[in-house]
Design goal:
- The chain has 12 helices and 16 strands.
- By secondary structure, it is α+β, with helices and mostly antiparallel strands.
- It has 4 domains: about 1-45, no CATH class; about 60-80 and about 355-445, Outer membrane lipoprotein wza domain like (Outer membrane lipoprotein wza fold like), CATH 3.10.560.10; about 135-210, 2-Layer Sandwich (wza like fold), CATH 3.30.1950; about 215-345, Outer membrane lipoprotein wza domain like (Outer membrane lipoprotein wza fold like, Roll).
- The strands form 4 sheets. It has a 6-stranded mixed β-sheet. Strands 8-7-11-9-10 form a 5-stranded mixed β-sheet, sandwiched between helices.
- Helix 8 packs antiparallel against helix 9.
- The longest helix has about 35 residues, at about 315-350.
- The protein starts with 18 loop residues before the first helix and ends with a helix.
- The model is unreliable at about 1-10, about 90-110 and about 145-155 (pLDDT under 50).
- One of its GO terms (molecular function) is polysaccharide transmembrane transporter activity.
- It is found in: Cell outer membrane.
Length: about 475
């Protein structure tokens, strides 16, 4: 229907009487004209039309959000995207010396992506048989008369011998026998030969009753710093961490397990360790120093490894060399991590990294799209407050919806939040978003009326001008 014009005969309002009567009559006439114009505009479909969530649409199911509904909705299958590793071409294009420091941030539209620690595995090693060392306690027992340990003062009587700094044990009637560096079988053979040479032929068993010569050290973000003796049973990384009471961290992404071995530094991202059984079963060696590192400050890791180097029985020159090596290797790992972070940030800045989004519309504080973060979930509260907060001026806060497409053939779910009860904001912090969710804020009734007036005012002016002409 074409836009209608209301033509009013000016002579119709020419009445006699005093000025006050004329003004009153003119006011009434203008209101009648306005009402008539509204009716005409309404019939012509020219009034303001705003988006709403229909109450009786069979293709839309409105769900009032409660704690139980949040639990069910969050149970839908979804795994956040993993942060991709940077491409080699991206890293090649970066000036390594200009790579910015790694600074983590909370997930938001301006999320700064911190690259995970770099994986650097130690070379594979074959499990070696235990070799006796200085400080180990060796016991000799007769086949028919096993001897129990009761105290250091009875060592000679109980046939218990500590390996001395010379690497030897001193046996009565046969003298000193060097056993350091020998396997338990080789040590038994050496003792047997010496005893036989001294006409001692009774059968005996040789065993190690105290493992003191070799150890693995665990420190950093673990429950208890500990030293684990190396025994006949091979030690794995998970064994060492369990012996230290487990890893204590609130930030898995920035946590790494560093292993210092024979002058070389290796590193395992904690997230990789949790997901990969082969890393958990990584065999350890005597002398390994393990440090669980949380965060991006390398000073604590450097101080820890420098302390372990200082405790070893090395020359001063070699200790200095090893300390310089560990410092350089930590710096190299840090530089590689910062470079990878810069490469990822470059892809985000150029929008070349595939992302998942939710969309804010209606009376949202800002109509925009909100990128879902990598590797963890985002909530409705994250999206709302990242884009300006709860829209309290123009929006009807009792009708905030999350529109979500479900399986084929099912109606669209319209999860309705009533934030006129401020306690329901807690539900917004718990309700997890999914890719392509639409967050819709309905408008206030007064907002709609205000916009109707704004829309029709030009029409009324046009009507008045037309009537005058």
């Amino acid at each position: 229907m074409p836009h209608a014009r209301v033509k009013i005969n000016p002579n119709f309002f020419q009445i006699k009487g005093n000025r006050r009567s004329k003004n009153l009559f003119h006011t009434i006439a203008r209101r009648i004209a306005l009402t008539t114009s509204l009716a005409i505009l309404n019939n012509c479909g020219a009034l303001y039309i705003s988006p709403t969530v229909p109450l009786n649409d069979p293709d839309v199911q409105i769900v009032e959000v409660t704690q139980g509904v949040v639990k069910i909705a969050n149970g839908s299958a979804y795994s956040p995207r993993a942060l991709p590793r940077p491409r080699s071409a991206d890293i090649t294009a970066i000036d390594l010396q200009s790579a910015q420091p790694v600074v983590p941030r909370v997930a938001s539209r301006q999320q700064t992506i911190s690259a995970p620690p770099v994986l650097r595995l130690p070379p594979q090693t074959k499990t070696k048989r235990y070799r006796i060392g200085v400080g180990d306690v060796v016991s000799l027992t007769g086949r028919s008369n096993p001897i129990a340990i009761s105290g250091a003062e009875d060592q000679q009587r109980l046939n218990i011998y500590t390996v001395q700094d010379s690497g030897a044990i001193a046996l009565p009637d046969v003298g000193s026998i060097k056993v350091a560096g020998l396997t338990i079988e080789d040590a038994h053979s050496a003792v047997f030969k010496r005893r036989a040479a001294n006409q001692i032929t009774d059968a005996f068993a040789l065993d190690i009753s105290g493992f003191n010569s070799q150890q693995i050290i665990v420190g950093g973000a673990v429950k208890t710093h500990t030293r684990i003796p190396v025994t006949f049973a091979p030690s794995t990384l998970s064994d060492a961490i369990a012996a230290a009471g487990g890893i204590v961290t609130e930030d898995e992404r920035s946590t790494s397990i560093k292993i210092y071995r024979l002058g070389e530094l290796y590193q395992l991202p904690f997230a990789d360790y949790l997901e990969t059984s082969d890393l958990q079963r990584l065999p350890l060696m005597s002398g390994d120093a393990i440090y669980v590192h949380v965060g991006y400050d390398l000073a604590t890791a450097q101080a820890y490894f420098s302390e372990q180097i200082a405790r070893t029985e090395l020359s001063i020159a070699l200790k200095t060399q090893r300390t310089e090596q560990i410092t350089a290797q930590l710096s190299a790992l840090d530089l590689q991590q910062r470079t990878e972070q810069t490469a990822i940030q470059m892809r985000i800045a150029t929008d070349s990294l595939q992302r998942e989004y939710v969309y804010l519309t209606g009376e949202a504080s800002k109509q925009t799209r909100f990128p879902l973060p990598f590797e963890h979930h985002a909530s409705l509260a994250d999206a709302l407050f990242d884009s300006g907060g709860l829209p309290t001026i123009t929006a009807n806060i009792s009708q905030i919806y999350i529109l979500r497409k479900r399986s084929s053939g099912s109606p669209i779910a319209a999860y309705r939040f009533d934030f006129s009860n401020a306690a329901n904001l807690v539900l917004a912090t718990e309700f997890q978003l999914r890719p392509n969710d639409v967050i819709f804020a309905a408008e206030q009734p007064i907002t709609k009326w205000h916009r109707v007036i704004q829309q029709i005012t030009p029409s009324l002016i046009t009507t008045g001008v037309g009537a005058t002409n």
